[in-house]
Amino acid sequence: MKYKHLAMIMGVMITATSVGSTATVFAEESKTESTQDADDTTEDTAEASDEKADDSKEETNEIVDLYIERTSNVDGFISYSMRDPIANNQGCTALLYACEWDDVEICKSLVFAGADLRKEIGKTSELTLPNGNMLFLPNNFIHRAIYFKAWNCLEWFLKDNKNLAAEYMHRKEENMTWLVYFLLMQQNEIMQNPQKCLDTQNNINRFLPLFLKAGASLKEDTIFGSAERILSGR
Questions:
Q1: What is d(CA 231, CA 180) in angstroms, rounded to the nearest whole number?
Q2: What is the pLDDT of residue 173?
Q3: Burial class (CB in 10 A: 0-12, 13-18, 19+), 86
């Protein structure tokens, strides 16, 4: 479903339908084989599943290559997703959608083809300020990576795009830093899903050093306080 969605949003509907049909064929073949031979091993099933995923991934890569080849503007807007609360009706770019699905390889391909990691599409809000107003932040790559929990893309952004990451760490957006936003989103995740406390702590342990290495400050004050204060629970 992930790869079918990526294909569809890139506007290559015929090929995208082919991906969906292929997935259906794989599912039917798997079902038929299971009926014909009940003695198939778990290993065989796992291999079939891996092959299906590999084929879907390969077809998606071909679609991305086709999109890059045929478009005159790789940063151009494409159809927006109804499930995307960030894009609203503004549309989105292939790069930001690939980020949403945490597909680093597609992000790399798009950036290599000229997609701009600095591209922003309006602003959106997920946080309420202490005064009751909504906080609006730019709809960009790092914002989407944090919001959609696209951890592989966030790691790639912070580690492999050091100059741009440093640029983002050294500027405030609406008296907010991206480190504080990341921490607040982890805090919200724990409040909404207490059973994910360990996962969020692992995320903090994984990304805090990367934010700091990119130039983020624990002590820089924001409208929600400093990252240091949030980490200490005060």
A1: 10
A2: 86
A3: buried
